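Bug #77: duplicate submission created two jobs. Keeping one. Sequence:
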Amino acid sequence: MSSTEASGSKLQGTAAESDELLGQIHLSPNQRAWRRFRKNSFAAGCAVFLAGLLGAILLWPVLAHPKVTGVMPDAVKSVFHQPDEHSDAQFQPPSARHWFGTDVHGRDLLSRVLFGARVSLLVGAVGACVSLVIGVLWGALAGYLGGRWDSLMMRVVDVLYSLPSIIFVIVLITTLHGVLDKLQAAGNLTPEWSRNAKFIGLFAGLGAVSWLTMARIVRGQVLTLRTRQFVDASRALGATHARILLRHILPNITGIIIVYLMLLVPAIVLYESFLSYLGLGVQPPQASLGSLIADGAAQINPIRIYWWLLVFPGAVLVSTLLALNFFGDGLRDAFDPRGDR
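Kept job's structure:
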């Protein structure tokens, strides 16, 4: 290669790098974060897995509806079953008709796993939203007010941190179940309302113990931002405290809040699975991944082990938790401003 061609290729490479840098300069912070996230192939793969799982959870009840299966070919509709559909095929191993096998009542395990994953993810999402509201409000107010209010509010957080959270949730849910059972026995509450109230109590209990770290993270970020010049300028222009907090400070920490929210969902799902394993979470006829694992563990005996009842719900739970954690880690790295360096 001649020196002229070499210098020409160098100039082309320099021009391409300059164009890329100029393109990054004109990108918004969210667009740069999206670029960094796409470069993380593992986190992107976990996002695809979660999207596929969510699609299967949402589409399965529709495809398993009798009106839909009625127009399907026999080879296809034999795969789709309702989660509470009983049959005489008890403890059938995985087959072409039942991909995950059947349980003690002859119910299709694949349908029940997808139904249980939907309940577990719903509990995790709602519990995370409860933690989001409480934690962001508490931490933002503590950091913005500062002084004695900050000290008082954070001492409350420290006291709650000292309590064993899982024991607190168990006591709270056990007390709620006792009160609801008494009301149902007295005829003041129908079984359906009692079941729904227990479900809502599970949301509230899990969310009530999961907002503490969120409050600390938000408080630290607000303490840093409240002394910035744009906050002083807004205050000088006559902006109210609520406007400064909601329109100027909180939007600047949205990325951090989203990242921790995604890391909070698997923690709440794990809490719910543990409570359901103990029989304190989702109540029958509803099912979650934790209750399905408990049912599978109950069928382990010295004579025969129905391994599919334990392996498939456990594999779905573990893979979902890992995907959520790696997805949250990918978001954290993407929203890190130092990622461009």
